[in-house]
Amino acid sequence: xxxxxxxxxxxxxxxxxxxxxxxxxxxxxxxxxxxxxxxxxxxxxxxxxxxxxxxxxxxxxxxxxxxxxxxxxxxxxxxxxxxxxxxxxxxxxxxxxxxxxxxxxxxxxxxxxxxxxxxxxxxxxxxxxxxxxxxxxxxxxxxxxxxxxxxxxxxxxxxxxxxxxxxxxxxxxxxxxxxxxxxxxxxxxxxxxxxxxxxxxxxxxxxxxxxxxxxxxxxxxxxxxxxxxxxxxxxxxxxxxxxxxxxxxxxxxxxxxxxxxxxxxxxxxxxxxxxxxxxxxxxxxxxxxxxxxxxxxxxxxxxxxxxxxxxxxxxxxxxxxxxxxxxxxxxxxxxxxxxxxxxxxxxxxxxxxxxxxxxxxxxxxxxxxxxxxxxxxxxxxxxxxxxxxxxxxxxxxxxxxxxxxxxxxxxxxxxxxxxxxxxxxxxxx
Length: 429
Ligand code: XMP
Description:
Elements: E1 5-11, H1 16-25, E2 29-34, H2 39-44, E3 48-55, E4 60-61, E5 64-65, H3 70-73, E6 79-82, H4 94-108, H5 117-132, E7 136-140, H6 145-158, E8 162-168, H7 176-187, E9 191-196, H8 198-205, H9 211-232, E10 236-240, H10 245-250, E11 275-277, H11 285-294, H12 299-302, H13 322-341, E12 350-354, E13 360-364, E14 367-379, H14 394-407, E15 411-416
Parallel strand pairs: 1-2, 1-3, 3-6, 7-8, 7-10, 8-9, 10-11, 14-15
Antiparallel strand pairs: 4-5, 12-14, 13-14
Helix pairs in contact: 5-6, 5-11, 6-11, 8-9, 13-14
Xanthosine-5'-monophosphate (XMP) binds at residues 215, 306, 308-310, 314, 350, 384, 421, 425-427.
């Protein structure tokens, strides 16, 4: 193994993620684990040089105080306690705290500053090979950043033993399914099962206008299609998931409340219970992107803007029709092209169009035309809980408008949504 590691044991401290990032900033890999890490789990962690017991305000769970596992205390490795069992809390000053961490990591633990993407990838490849042996692994490859990076890493680790399934639910952006097939099947040589389930999804969604109902149908159908594909394959024992660290925190650890549940491939039936392979689960989003670049994925795939699971389904407002969905997909593609041309793809967090189920009067070729509007949404945010509207230069907005109303069938107006969140959510449904 190439990397040394400092393990942060979560004893209810609020800053475990921050401390992990600070240790990594010193050049030493670090992982966060629950307080009750077992001896077996600890033995499977490579390169551990020391522990940080991170106590804090959430250290009493269900009436009992969280204690560090015996395995940790008996490991013989250095332990640094903060805000736990009489140990002082972290100093507030950044410099002081950095000094403390530096002294512990380098002087006490004698860790080497050998954390970098190349070493991380090499170590994870080794760990995946150990876990999987000569067995087969299944992966739902959405084309999003996390699953794409995971697929690229697993291909390096186990090549042919990996089967990727890409389900096109018909609600992806223009060019996305094609890019997934090109990059993974043709460029990287992956076993890729491509399922065009567009008709299935759109038939199920026909006439359904309620946004929550639409989301439920899309989620449930996705699992059904994936399950069908999984049953066609034989001898699969593992399921790879692109879980990353913020997903774990948001789904709720013992010391953190649930923000929202994340199920990359949730809800598979019991008889399809696979063991999970999650090699990027300790990474933060920027690190996942760096891993993607190091693995040779195209930059536009690695820097893709966030895209909701139900995809264009929540932007084709009300009951989805194929013609309006097509108008949405085309107008979104134009927006993305023009944003890229203007360099706005680097500065705006999320940008897309919405096509409501509403027509207005317009004029085209000297005749009245009743067509839909396309609404532009472009927001910046840190955590998607609130969002702001950045200034988009007028010439860019004019150019986008001109192209959409001339190139997209069925759109005769373009509107720009100036509403921050709150009061407007980012998506319209
Ligand atoms: P809202 O609309 O709630 O969106 O302001 C916040 C962020 O979450 C994304 N979003 C979703 N992502 N499934 C997802 O995977 C969903 O159902 C969903 N709804 C919203 C949205 O794109 C934005 O980034």
